[in-house]
Every structure is written in structure tokens, then in C-alpha cells.
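It is worth pausing here to work through a concrete case rather than discussing structure prediction in the abstract. The textbook approach is simple: state the sequence, then state the predicted structure, then interpret. We follow exactly that order.
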Amino acid sequence: MISLKDLLNLPRFSDLTLLNTTSDRLDYPIKSVEITETPDIEHYITEDCFLLSTAMVYKNQQTELIPLIDSLIRAKAVGLGIKVGRFLGTLDAAVIHYAEEVGFPLILIPDQYSLGSLLHQILDIVWGTRHEELSFALDIQKRFSDLLIQDASNKVIIEQFSQMVKTPVILLNPYWRILTHSIHFNDSNNRADYYAYQIYDHVKHTDKQSGSFLIQDVNRKDIHISLIPIKVHENFPHYLIILNPEHIPYPISNFAIEQASMVLSYILFKNERVADSKYAQEADFYKELIDYSAQNHHKEPDRLMNAKFGYIQSNYYQVVHVYESSLLKLSKLTPYGEELLLMASRWLRHNIKQYFADGLVFYFEQAKEIMLMIQAKPDNLNESLTKIRSDIAKYLPLNIVFSVGNAYPNLGQISQSHSQAHLVYEERKAQQEVTPIMAYENKGVFHLFNNLEYNDVRFFCQTALKDLAYPEEASLIELRKTLHVYLNSQCEIARTAGTLFVHRNTVKYRIQRIEEVLGITVNTPENSLNLRLALELSEEEQK
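Step two, the predicted structure:
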């Protein structure tokens, strides 16, 4: 869009004289042009209007132009052009001085000009510029629409965008890691990660997660950057980084950035949904493995061993439950809490190989839980988990805690490690225990029972499970088995039904019967913990 300064620099308007030495309004875009001879014009003009006048009503009292200037400032006009000759021979010095003082552009128009003709000439330029800008905007929109249709990658989109704005561009994920960048950074002496780290450091210390600010380039010179959040998630955006945004002509910058942000948001969202589908398959496979292991104790599930999902032959299998400490006190997760766990699971998935070479990460969407499976004995488990905890906190507002099951030499025993890890988590949640690492083997729960007399343990089991503690009737045995599977399935009806090969309504009926027998609600954190303990202890007693 053309400004008053641009207009005055055009050769065809060289005889228009700016009477001010300086004014910020000279850079304001001209959106309309009006002619008036009335003093109350401020009520009838739009913002960014350039006003033309002969000032004939002021010929006998030019100082009355000063209130007019004030009214035009209130109306956010860009300037006032006054034609001299017919009504005003010259312009009063006091008026010029006041315009200078308040920084309002005052333009002297020679007598040979027809104001009507001048208005049309200026409007032709303004509308021509706007037509050009609109055409450019439509072109940008089409180019990005084509990229969407072509299902272009992030890299292609970023490269196209960089070419449009003619400046370097970087795309970061929510963890401030580079997803892709423009060709400008292919030179090893001009690394994208150099800028990404500085931006991350700036945001970390200022908490400013959008807008423009200064950093240093590879030559230690100040450089402007723009940080633009790309909304894929409600609370954890991706980031578009533009170097030297001041070199992008207005309004090209606005059009291009808007379109790029929209397209990137869609593409990133779509890519995550595709990835989520794959991760859901992996989680379902893990559930199947756990269910098989629970029903076939110590039997190696050869048919389930699937390298496609990352499983390996080993003599070491261990499950770790991962959670965010601040969420332990919540009976129901907020949307923010759910998103926090999702982001934690994705970070772990992307980075797990740094800590456990054969580690697998599973996120259970329905239960909102993260499970980590370790398939090789680590040098120091606690040290690795502590490192994960420390590293993730650098990039996300997370204070994660680990509930660790025992390690087993056989994949057929993995359900035991899974149940133990979940048992520790339930105890942690019931007590709101935020100790960073709690292990089943040393957390003390079963050790406490080991120190009790046989009759005391039996009393605890009978108190918790009642008729389901040591059942002999077939119907009670069936209810006990359903309770065990239900608790191992994170109290999910559908999953329990699938494991037991019965209808969902059958599971619902059995859970209702179980709760009638026990006299409690099964799925509360405290009750489920006690029931898990009682089931484990009573089962151990019968072996």
C-alpha cells in the first residue's frame, strides 16, 4: 500500500511541497482521498484518509486551521493538502509551525492543480497498488493451496515460503528442535541450530514466545528475527522463525506469513494424526502382548514377537510407568493435563534411544498413560531415568515421575512387570507421592507384608476381597478373574471384554456383581490399589 512519502516521491507530484521537516505519519498507508471545505470533517472521513482542501472558509482567519489539524489527528488522517492561490495566497506561518510541532503532514498544492483531478490521480495510484497487492495475495494463496493439494512436505513448504519472502526461514517443533529449514542454512558455516539455540535461550529468559527481537548472527552482529507460533496444539505450538523480517516488503509479509502459518498448521496436524495412528497400533499390540502374557504365565509369546514394532529377543524385560507429578492430585485430567501427557509421550518417543537403545514408548489415549518398555539391562537404570527427567524439563513444563516394575528374563512375564509398574503408580496416586523414581522391588509394599504373620496377610486379603479372596464356587472364581483382568486393563470395559472374549455388557454386569460382593467402587485409586495388592498376595499364597 502506498504511503504519503511514496506519493510525494513520485515525479508526477514533484511540485507538491511538504511543509513539515519530519512526521511519522508520512509512512502511514493512504487508504482513501477526500475533498472538503467543512470544518467538522472528522465525523465523515475514514482512518488513513488524505484530505484535500482550498481552505476557503479559513481565508480570513487561518489560525482556525489549527483546530482542524487537531480534529484530523483524532480522525487518524494521514495528512492535509491545501491549495494556494485562489482563496489563500500563502499559508500562515503559525499554522505551519503548529503542524510541525504536532507532527501532522501539511502539503502545499500549487494553484494550477484541480483538486478533483488530483483526487482521481491519487486514487488511481492507491487503487492500482491495492489491486496489485490483492493480485499478489491471491497468487500466494494459490501457491499454498497447490502445496496442500500436492500433500507437500514441511521442507517443501518452508522452501517455497522462503523464496516468496526472500529471507531465511526455520521451522521448530514444540521442543525447540529443528524440523526443517530453508536452503540458506545448508552452508556448514551458517547453521540453523545456531539460531534455534539463541532463540530458545531468549524465550527461556524472557518468556516471550512470539514477536520480533534481536539475536546475533554467525558473525556476532545483531539480526532481527520474528518468532511466529504455529498452532497445532492448544498449549504447545510449533514455531516459524523468520530472519531479517524487516527486509520483507509490506504487505507481502502479512499475506505470506498468514498463508504459510495456515498451511503449516494443517500439514503438521495431519502428519501428527498419521503418526498417532501408527502409535495406536503399537499400543494395541503391546496390550495384546500383556493380555497374552497374563493368561499364559512364563510362556514365551513367539507368535507375538514382532520386530516391526521394535521387539527384540533378550533376557531382560522391564516396564516403567511415566506420569507428570502435578497431575497425581487430579481425579480427572483437564484438557491441559491431557495435552501435557501427550507432549511428554511424543518427546519420549523421539528421544528414547538416547537413554535406552532398545526402549519402546507406548501412549494409551483412553487411559492417558505412558508406558516405557526396556529390553536390555541398562548400566544404571535410575541414572538414565533421572537424565530423562532432567532433559525433558528443559523443553516442556514437566516434572515427570517413574513407577518401575521388576525386570524379567522372559517376555512371557512382561505382564507381571506391567502390573507391578501400574501398582506402584496407583499407590503413588493414592498417596500423591511425587518421589521421582519409585520401584516395585524396593518401594516396601510387599516387603511390609512379608514381615507380617500369615494370618495377618490372609486377614488383609479377606477384608479387601471378601468372598473373592479364596473362592471355590465357579461363579466367584469367574468374578475374581474378571476383576483381575479389569484392573490390569486400567478399568477399561472394552479392553476387558476383548481379553476375556465376552460381550461388553457381560463385563458391566460382572463388575456390578463384584462391587455388590465387595461393597465398594472398584476403580478409585485407593480401592484399586488395595484390590491389586490383595489379588497378588492371595495368588502368591496359593502357589
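Step three, interpretation. The mean pLDDT is 84. The two ends are 84 Å apart (CA to CA).
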